[in-house]
Amino acid sequence: MANTIAQLHKDERFEGYLLVRAAEQRTASNGKCYLDMTLGDRTGTINAKMWDGTVAPPPQGSVVAVRGTGNEFMGRMQLRVERVKVAQPQEVPDMSLLVPCAPEPPQAMLREVRAAAEAIADADLRALVCALLDQAGERLLTFPAAKQMHHAERGGLLHHVTSMLRCARALASVYPFLDGDLLAAGVIVHDLAKLSEMDADGLGVVSDYTTQGKLLGHIVRGVVDIEQAGARVGARAQVVLLLQHMVLSHHGIPEFGSPVPPKFPEAEVLNAIDTLDARLFEIQEALARTSPGGFSEKVWGMENRQFYRIPRAQEGEEG
After folding, report:
1. pTM across the whole model
2. N or C: which end of the chain has fewer CB within 10 A?
3. pLDDT of the residue at 127
4. Treating both helix axes as pointing N-terminal to C-terminal, what angle do 237-249 and 123-136 enclose, rounded to 10 degrees?
């Protein structure tokens, strides 16, 4: 019996939980209705057919318990479904088997981010950052950092921010002239407006960009959010302006979406660690799919470079 979609072969049985990417009732050429679905887990997606016109399509983004058999159709694997039932959250044994998930518990990451915000010494800056976190709310627990690129995973936005916070603390200890609190504030808020840029479900799967995302993007929306939150908490104009500049410049150059380059040290460091964290994530993901001693597939976000996976002692040396 296959445990994942990638392992499924013709005439092999499958029984387990899958994520519904799409589902609808269709009519065959003989006039009979059937359920057509695209189901997925962490290893991939598969077309699934259930030849029963009485079964309602499960909601997109839901998790279903499925029983069926592998079938080959036009050279591609298909799942012939015998039974499908929407699962309750408590039934799913491990969500990371269905969708990519951040490597740390989301609640722990959110506590770390909130603790960093509450530790900011400047009262106005602290109030402003905490107000923006309150506005984001618990959506942060599952929200991804991207649709397809870096940290496109459940809890990916928190994964990105916590990694950057740890890097920021280390750099602030090496370069003591940096304002560590201002840098931490920029790290925490720089991507929060992605919550209004993308339409993501509770599994961290982005279906599309929102109207705001397409017309404004998270950088411009982030600047507006800071202005509004600053007015609510009565933050000093200088504090609002500095944080707005950090968000506006965190992509570095116009080609990457920032209309202005970083113009003070903390903004420069924010751009550097944002770029570093995103790039290392892409490299790590590519190398995870690469055999020791081999080269990865071309990584689009890294100028289509291929990366070498250095053989480690526990993996055995290259032959």
Report:
1. 0.80
2. C
3. 98
4. 50
